[in-house]
From TrEMBL:
Protein name: TMM8A factor
Extent of Low complexity compositional bias: 286-302
PANTHER family: FIVE-SPAN TRANSMEMBRANE PROTEIN M83 (PTHR14319), POST-GPI ATTACHMENT TO PROTEINS FACTOR 6 (PTHR14319:SF7)
Chain segments carrying region Disordered: 286-312
GO CC entries: plasma membrane
UniProtKB keywords: Cell membrane, Disulfide bond, EGF-like domain, Membrane, Transmembrane, Transmembrane helix
Record has Disulfide bond as a keyword: yes
Disulphides: 458-468, 483-492
Length: 731
């Protein structure tokens, strides 16, 4: 046999601490057909700085769809069936880099996914630029070894083969036809080259993760051994590996035979139903309705007789694509499906486009109680991938040859049932329904079950406390929920740490009403004739109030305009307020001060548009304004030959308290805020900044008098006052 090795690589990604599924970095690979060996090369590395510590990286694997993970131990939705993912841990301790290999023999062909992430996030809100996080990088490469001329085992035809040695197993494949109800594999005439009794092991099927249902068969001696499989995967190649368990130098000759039991489906008149569907949508011509009803009446006896002789009844289903990872399935015969005890009713749910595995498959059943006359009757259902379950009446087991399905049931006592499959694997999915009775009393009974099936990006749109986000890895799209207000879980249904409505209202009130502390600063600015500064503070107070009213995660939310606009205006007002306050303290000439006001505001607006959360967008203007202020104070002090400001009362009662409040505010903002305490630490930031502004504003100019409203509004004669300075000659 000719083996060909292939190599697939993807660029490295920077890992993140886990708080929701969007923090997990996804890698998407495609394993070709006839692959006999798959090897993952996993490379993890970290930075060399002092902030880098030992870290454990968790890597998840899954075939067919992204892995369903739960690192935080939260609850899933009530009707979701979750199977744990296969994962390994990679530890970065003293070594800067770690290389790990993962081998998979006879892997299933198709899509394979890898998700990697760091441990749970600490929840601390870090200001961009204040601290340098350690970079943890992860890269996954894939090596495959495949056969270019894998022998094909034809059904019903015995095929002799030779296993050369235990180190070189034999690989063959057989194609499973559609409607195959069972498969029987038989191995006979097992003889070694030394004419001794041989021992071989046969592995049927491919390995899939997280769960693998590969079937094993050990044959000893020349006697025939066989293995029967129920519901093998339809229209797929099934790999068979035969390996010798004997001596190293002896070859083994075997004869293999594969046979299938094919199930004949009953007639469903899908073509006539499709024609009637088009006529009902487009509007039938006169006389068309009478002509279309005649074949349906003639079909009824044939359908009844075909139902007795067939092993399944297939219902036609139309797949309707609505949006990205959004599909609705419509039954051509209507939402109600007839279910009997003679043979299962089958519905095909097509999810094999390669872009459907990033959502949630929802199947809902509703039993019409009046359609079943027996009180003890139960409608058993099974949702399975690759092949349907055709033996619900015998064992009531929801398993196929190489997979485990998802069982459902409805009865007169429990008429509703729902199933949520998170990230369904890329394949053809089947819904099997059959009527079951305790003692076989419903041979002629028929039940009506209403079926609703659809694919949605996020179940229930993540609820009121979550946001459904569409994520992308190269050309692959998948969806995940980002929860808020303390809610958690896959669909934001876990209320273990959820905030109460009272807590949410308190957070909104604190973050909004704390901005009213700017009112004293505005009053001081107006009293001292700093009208431009007062206007800036009013602008900041207004937009900060309504930005935080719109930024709340819970139900206490009010947005007066677009969220992004409110956020930008809030950030702009905060930085400009600091800018104008420090320049006002510098005591510059009016024309120069107002020029710097306008020029600085324009530059701040530009920098915030480039990077809104960068620390230098705030620190840069602050440092430059402080430089101007210190220069101006040194100039004033040198000119007066005295320390500026000269009054000790100004330093003790105004400047030092204002500077202290400003430093405390910066410390709270940069180092103390977390996701849990944000609503009161950020409110403290608002109060401290507003109070520091009121302390730091300089007194009014000496030649300006306080506001005298009685003099401003009078209509009588006024005595003009001469403000000219007297010049004295010093001799």
């Amino acid at each position: 046999s000719l083996y060909v090795s292939e190599y697939f690589s993807q660029s490295a990604q920077k890992l993140s601490f886990y708080s929701w599924y969007g923090n997990a970095k996804l890698f998407h690979f495609h394993v070709p057909e006839d692959t006999v060996l798959l090897r993952w090369l996993l490379q993890a590395s970290r930075g060399k700085g002092p902030e880098c510590t030992s870290m454990e990286i968790t890597v998840h694997f899954r075939h067919g769809a992204p892995p369903v993970i739960n690192p935080l131990g939260t609850r899933f939705p009530a009707n979701a069936t979750v199977r744990p993912s296969y994962n390994i841990s990679i530890t970065l301790s003293s070594a800067v880099q770690n290389t790990t290999f993962v081998n998979v023999t006879t892997p299933a062909a198709g899509d394979w996914f890898i998700a990697a992430h760091l441990p749970e996030a600490a929840g601390r809100i870090e200001v961009k630029g204040f601290s340098t996080p350690c970079p943890y990088m992860f890269q996954a490469d894939m090596f495959v070894l495949r056969l270019t001329d894998m022998p094909v085992l034809e059904p019903g035809v015995p095929m002799p083969h030779t296993v050369v040695s235990p180190a070189k197993p034999l690989h063959v494949k057989v194609f499973v036809p559609k409607h195959a109800a069972g498969m029987r594999f038989q191995l006979s005439s097992c003889v070694t080259s030394e004419q001794r009794a041989c021992t071989v092991r046969v592995l049927l099927g491919s390995i899939t993760l997280p769960q693998s249902f590969q079937r094993s068969l050990t044959c000893t001696g020349s006697i025939n051994c066989s293995l029967a499989l129920e519901s093998p995967p339809w229209e797929k190649w099934l790999q068979i590996m035969v390996e010798s368990l004997g001596t190293a130098n002896a070859s083994v000759s075997v004869e293999m035979l594969a046979s299938f039991t094919v199930c004949r489906p009953g007639s469903t008149s899908s073509f006539l139903n499709f024609i009637s569907l088009n006529q009902s949508q487009a509007g039938a011509r006169p006389g068309a309705a009478a002509g279309s009803s005649a074949p349906a009446a003639g079909e009824a006896p044939r359908n009844a007789s075909g139902r007795r002789s067939s092993c399944l009844q297939s219902q036609p289903v139309v797949r309707e694509d609505l949006d990205v990872v959004s599909v609705r399935y419509r039954l051509l015969n209507g939402p109600s499906v007839p279910v009997t005890s003679l043979s299962p009713t089958l519905l095909l749910l097509n999810l094999n486009t390669g872009m459907d595995s990033g959502g949630s498959l929802v199947v809902s059943l509703l039993l019409n109680k009046t359609s079943v006359s027996l009180a003890n009757a139960t409608v058993a259902a099974c949702v399975s991938a690759a092949s349907p379950v055709l033996s619900l009446n015998a064992t009531q087991n929801c398993s196929t040859a190489f997979s485990q399905g998802y069982p459902l049931s409805v009865s007169a006592s429990s008429a509703e049932a729902m199933l949520i499959v998170l990230y369904p694997q890329t394949d053809d999915w089947f819904l099997s329904l059959q009527l079951l009775c305790p003692k076989g009393e419903c041979a002629s009974a028929e039940g009506k079950v209403t079926v609703f099936a659809y694919l949605t990006p996020c179940f229930n749109d993540c609820g009121p406390y979550g946001q459904c986000s569409l994520l992308r890895r190269h050309g692959y799209l998948y969806a995940a929920c980002s929860c808020k207000a303390g809610w958690g879980g896959w669909s934001c249904t876990d209320d273990t740490k959820a905030q109460s409505v009272g807590t949410q209202n308190l957070a909104t009130l604190l973050l909004t009403l704390s901005n009213l502390m700017f009112l004293p600063a505005i009053a001081v600015a107006v009293y001292r004739f700093y009208l431009v500064e007062a206007s800036v503070y009013t602008y900041t107070m207004f937009f900060s109030t309504f930005y935080h009213a719109c930024d709340q995660p819970g139900v206490a939310v009010m947005c007066i305009m677009d969220y992004d606009t409110l956020q930008y205006c809030d950030f702009l007002g905060s930085v400009v307020s600091i800018w104008v306050t420090i320049l006002c303290m510098a005591r510059l000439k009016k024309i120069l001060k107002y020029v710097l006001f306008v020029l600085g505001t324009l530059l701040i607006a530009m920098s915030l548009q480039l990077d809104r959360r960068g620390v230098w967008n705030m620190m840069g203007p602050c440092l430059f304004a402080l430089l101007i202020m210190v220069t101006a104070w040194v100039h004033h002090g040198a000119k007066r030959r005295h320390c500026y400001p000269s009054s000790w009362k100004r330093w003790v009662f105004y400047l030092l308290p204002g500077i202290t409040l400003a430093f405390i505010a910066i410390s709270v903002y940069a180092f103390m805020e977390t996701n849990e305490n944000y609503y009161y630490t950020h409110s403290i930031w608002h109060v401290l900044v507003a109070c520091s502004v009121a302390f730091l504003l300089p007194p009014r100019d000496k030649h300006k008098k306080p506001w005298a409203w009685s003099q401003k509004l009078t209509c009588r004669y006024q005595i003009c006052q001469n403000d000219r300075e007297e010049l004295y000659a010093v001799t």
